[in-house]
Design a protein that fits this description.
The chain has 67 residues and is of the alpha+beta class. The protein is built from two helices and two strands. It is elongated and about 50 Å long. The relative contact order is 0.23.
């Protein structure tokens, strides 16, 4: 994948990494890919994911950080 890839998890360090990656991508005219993970709880019995209503606050926070 060409360009700069940065992962964010909501921490202060991730926010700093995102700021650095945005500056580098702009300076080098490179595409920027931002990756975030939303952990899904798993069933203790089967290990299958437990599907819950979306966590809108976390999704909006990640979207805002990526923008």
């Amino acid at each position: 994948m060409p360009g700069i890839i940065v992962g964010i998890d909501g921490s202060d360090g991730a926010h700093q990494a995102l700021e650095w990656a945005m500056k580098q991508a702009a300076a080098h005219h490179a595409p920027l890919t931002v990756v975030t993970v939303h952990e899904v709880p798993a069933s203790g019995w089967t290990g299958n994911p437990v599907i819950l209503p979306p966590d809108e606050d976390a999704v909006e926070k990640a979207r805002h950080a990526a923008e």
